[in-house]
Structure formats: C-alpha cells, structure tokens
Amino acid sequence: MKFIDLRSDTVTEPTQNMRQAMFTAEVGDDVYGDDPTVIALEEYAAKLVNKEAALFVPSGTFGNQLALFTHCTRGNEVILGDDCHIVVHEVAASSVIAGVQLRTLTSNKGELDPKQIQARIRKEDEDIHYPSTGLICIENAHSCGRVIPLCTMEKIYNLAKQKEVPVHLDGARLFNAAAYLDVDAKEITKYCDTVMFCMSKALCAPIGSILAGDKKFIAKARKKRKVLGGGLRQVGILAAAGLVALHEMIPQLKIDHENAILLGEELSKIPGISVNSEDTHINMVFFDMSATGFSTDKLVEKFYNRGIKINGEEDGLMRFVTHNWISKEDIKFIITSMKEVLAGK
Fold this sequence. Notes:
By secondary structure, this protein is of the alpha/beta class.
C-alpha cells in the first residue's frame, strides 16, 4: 500500500533526478578532502547562505551539536529558547558532546526577547560563580511552524556582536522561512555567525545537512566532525542528492506552504477541530481536536488503515506536515477520512 505520510517532511523520498545523480556521482575519499561532489556541494551551499565555507554532515542534530561543540568550551553556557529543537528534541546531546549548560528563555512561539538575552549574558571574569556565555542559538523557521521576524534576528545579532558572543542559527527549515518571508536565504543568515540547514526534510534528499560559517570555524568543525565519527568516505553519492535538492527543490516549498494553508482551512471546518491558523507559516498545521472527544491514538490507527500515516498528539496538539509528496488530491482524501472517522464510519 502506498501511504500518504503526514508525520513529517523528513519522510520525503528522493526524486528521480536525485536517484540518477546518486547513481552517476563522481566520488573520492572525503576525509582526505578529495570527493569532488562533496566539494561542489559545500561550495554551493556556502554561497547560498553567504558564508565563507560549509561542511556536509549526516543530520540536522549532528550539525547543531557540532556547532555547539566547535563554538564552545566545556562549562560554557548557551542561551536559547526553551521550546527550540536543540532543547526539546536533541536528547540532551549538548551535555554529552559539548559539555555545556543550556540557559533557556521562555519564547513567544519561538521568538526570543533581545532584552532577556542581554540580561542573561555572563562572563566568568565578572563573578567567580559565573560560567561564560559561549553562544546564542536561535531557530528559524521554528519547530512550532512559525517564522521569526528578521527585525528580531537583527536585534539579537547586533546585541551579540556588542557582547562578543557568536550566534548560531538552527535553520533546519531555513528555506521554508525564506519562502514565507519572500526573501533570499542570505537575508536571514546575515544575522548569524554559523547556520545549519537540512536537505533531508522538505527538500527531499535522503540524508544530509550543512553547517556553514567562516573558514576558520569550518576548519575547526571539520576536525571535530571526525571526533564525532562523522568523517565519511565516498559520501559524494549522498552529496549528489543534496546538490539536486538545493538546485531544484527550493521553489517547491511555496507549494507545500499553500497546501498546508488549504489543509488547515479544511480541517477548521470540521466541528470540534481548532486549527492554529496564525501559526501556519510554513508546511506545518497544528490543531487541537480534544473537543471532538475522539482519541488521537485511535485516530492514528484508523488513519493508518486508510493508508494515511500520522503521529499522535504532543502537548495536546496534533501536527500534519505537507511536503513534495502530498498533493491537493491527497488533502481532499485526508479531509474526507477525518470526517468519516469522526462520524464513526
């Protein structure tokens, strides 16, 4: 059975062009630095985000944690939002790998208050009890589905420069944010020192993310990537798919966003379902269906039997994610299925 998969945009399969590129990819040993396809990917990725250099890494979590590991020394403090991906969904890797303390701020749906950040920046020479702030992390687009305004990013970045603290951007869905804001990705990444973005989510590559920054940072990160076991060999086979993703798939994101809005609008018409339409900035639809009285665990089962894969609720909310393999016809079927399941059919 071919499933409609709404669990995430990580479920996207490679396109035919990606499969062909992988099949014919010219490869070498990337640890020695002689895989031409990886080199081409890293150079192109760096240009896309206007950074001096880039590094191919296996995953978004790997890229974020490598950034913390490279920016910070053990015992540093990292300022970030309490609902960001690094805190919520990266299994406390920061304590295991970088050995840093996370100092979280309450965010407003992913948006951090620059004044609160300023109040929490600490230097160890100020007080014998203080750790030193080694990094500020922001996320855009945010895991909650919202895009952070550029004016907020600019304020945080300018503040960080004054305090001589680097800024890392978790840009797992960077190009979704750029599509929503209708700007080039460079307009977002100019407000950070380093950025990680994924090619394995809505861009459909089977694996891989990019960490980008200045040449000195990336040289240091390349060695630390080896420490983490991320020194891969003939990885040009995977980098080839990443190149296709960056060249061909970015325009698709606006279609994914349109489909998410359509899905949210249709779900909101169903009695008992409350859609967070104000949060549908990218390809994620969050909604509360508690008023229907229908078990979300049961919905997962019923949908699966109809050929639709979904996750259960998290913190009281359901999340449906659109992507390249979700069509408007699929959305019609999803809505029909929701109505029928809730009606007991």
